[in-house]
Specification:
alpha+beta; Uridine Diphospho-n-acetylenolpyruvylglucosamine Reductase, domain 2; Uridine Diphospho-n-acetylenolpyruvylglucosamine Reductase, domain 3; Uridine Diphospho-n-acetylenolpyruvylglucosamine Reductase, domain 1; 3 domains; five-stranded antiparallel sheet; four-stranded mixed sheet; 9 helices; 28% strand; globular; binds NADP nicotinamide-adenine-dinucleotide phosphate
C-alpha cells in the first residue's frame, strides 16, 4: 500500500482537489486496518477509480482509496459460459479488449466507457442496448458498516437503469472485484439504430461491433484527455407513458423508449438541445458542441462552476419541458437535492 497526505486527486475534469489522505491499495486485506485508523476523519472513505465520474467542488477531508489490482482470474468454464473475477483497478476498456481477444462475448457494446472495473457496478454502466447487470454474477465488497468482506450476488445489488444498491448506500460498500459470466457464443445486440447503421452486415462478429462502438463513441464524445469532461452529465429521465405523450404534442419528434416496468425513457440530450443549450457556455465551462449531455471545462475551472452550469441546464429543461434531470456523476461538496 502507498499512503500520501494532502494528495492531489486525479479526475478527468482536471479540477484541482486534494484528499486529506490518498491510499493506493494492492491487497483488499489492508482495508479494515486502514478504515479503522482513519475513522475519525470528517468524511467517510471514498473509492476513486480514474476520476471519470466525479465532480469535486472542494478538497476531500477524508481518506480516498484507489484499488490497484488489475488481476483477471478464471473461476469456471463450460461449453456455453466462462466466469471471470476481475480486480477493481483494471481499466474497463482494457477488460473489454481482453474479453474480445479471448473469445468471451457480451461486453463489445460497452467498449470505450471510461473508468475502472470497480466503478462499473455503481452506475450499472450501459451503452448501445447492453448493460453490465446482464453479466454480473457477484460483486466483491468490503462492508464499512460491518467491517467485513462479502460477495453480494447480483440480485442483492439491486441493479436498475444506471442505478444500483452501491449508489443508494453511498460510502457503505468498497468494491474490490467483480465476477462476470460471459458467453462463448456471441449474441450480437444491434438494436440501436446508430450502431446498426454503422455496421455493414446484419450478422456482425463481436470484433465488428467493438470497432463500430469505438468509432461511434470517438465521433460523438469529446476525448477527456484533450477536453476535460466526465462523459454524460445527466441520466436519461424516466417518466410515465402519458407524460411522454403529452410532451410529444409540444415536441413531435421526441425520442422516447418504453422500459420493462411500463415507464418511458426520454433522451436527456434532446431535451437540452431543444432548449438551445448545445454549445452554451458560462465562463470556463460549457455544454459540449459535440454532445449536449457532456459538460466540458477549460483549465483552471472549478467544480462549483461545473455544478452552476448543470443547475442552469436543469432549470432551463424543467421550465421548458417540466422534466427533472439528475446528474450521473457523483458531486462531492454539492448537494443536488438542495439545488432543487
Ligand atoms: P443516441 O443514439 O443519440 O440516443 C440518445 C438516447 O436515446 C441514448 O441515451 C439511449 O439511451 C436512447 N436510445 C437510443 N436508441 C435506443 C433504443 N433503440 N432503445 C432504447 N434506448 C435508445 O445516443 P448517444 O448519446 O449517441 O449514446 C449512444 C450510447 O452510448 C447510449 O447507450 C448511451 O447511454 C451511451 N453513452 C454513454 C455515455 C457515458 O458517459 N456513460 C456517454 C455517451 C453515450 P441509453 O443511454 O439508455 O442507451
Amino acid at each position: 500500500m502507498r499512503l500520501q497526505a494532502n494528495a492531489l486527486i486525479d479526475n478527468t475534469l482536471q479540477l484541482t482537489a486534494r484528499a486529506a489522505y490518498l491510499a493506493k491499495i494492492t491487497h483488499a486485506s489492508e482495508l479494515p486496518r486502514l478504515c479503522r485508523h482513519y475513522a475519525s476523519l470528517p468524511a467517510p472513505p471514498l473509492v476513486l477509480g480514474s476520476g471519470s465520474n466525479v465532480v469535486f467542488c472542494h478538497d476531500y477531508p477524508g481518506l480516498v482509496l484507489q484499488f490497484t489490482s488489475q488481476k483477471i482470474r478464471l473461476l469456471c468454464s463450460d461449453t456455453e459460459y466462462v466466469t471471470v473475477r476481475v480486480g477493481a483497478g483494471l481499466n474497463w476498456h482494457a477488460l473489454v479488449r481482453w474479453c474480445l481477444s479471448m473469445g468471451y462475448h457480451g461486453l463489445e457494446n460497452l467498449a470505450l466507457i471510461p473508468g475502472k472495473v470497480g466503478a462499473a457496478p455503481i452506475q450499472n454502466i450501459g451503452a448501445y442496448g447492453v448493460e453490465l447487470a446482464t453479466f454480473v454474477v457477484a460483486v466483491g465488497v468490503f462492508d464499512t458498516q460491518q467491517q467485513s468482506y462479502t460477495a453480494l450476488p447480483a440480485k442483492a445489488c439491486n441493479f436498475g437503469y444506471r442505478d444500483s444498491r452501491f449508489k443508494a448506500e453511498p460510502g457503505r460498500w468498497l468494491i474490490t472485484h467483480v465476477d462476470l459470466q460471459l458467453r462463448r457464443h456471441a449474441q450480437p445486440e444491434i438494436s440501436y439504430p446508430a450502431l446498426r447503421n454503422c455496421l455493414a452486415t446484419d450478422h456482425p462478429q463481436p470484433k465488428q461491433i467493438f470497432d463500430s462502438v469505438v468509432k461511434l463513441r470517438r465521433r460523438r464524445l469529446p476525448d477527456p484527455r484533450l477536453i476535460p469532461n466526465v462523459g454524460s452529465f445527466f441520466k436519461n429521465p424516466v417518466t410515465s407513458q402519458e407524460f411522454a405523450e403529452d410532451l410529444r404534442r409540444e415536441l413531435p419528434d421526441l425520442s422516447s423508449f418504453p422500459m420493462a416496468n411500463g415507464q418511458c425513457k426520454l433522451a436527456a440530450a434532446q431535451l437540452i438541445e431543444e432548449c438551445g443549450l448545445r454549445g452554451y457556455s458560462e465562463g470556463r465551462v460549457m455544454v459540449s458542441n459535440q454532445h449536449a449531455l457532456v459538460i466540458t471545462a477549460t483549465n483552471g475551472a472549478n467544480g462549483s462552476e461545473v455544478v452552476a452550469l448543470a443547475r442552469t441546464i436543469r432549470e432551463r429543461v424543467f421550465r421548458r419541458w417540466r422534466v427533472r434531470l439528475d446528474p450521473e456523476p457523483r458531486l462531492i461538496g454539492a448537494d443536488w437535492s438542495e439545488i432543487w
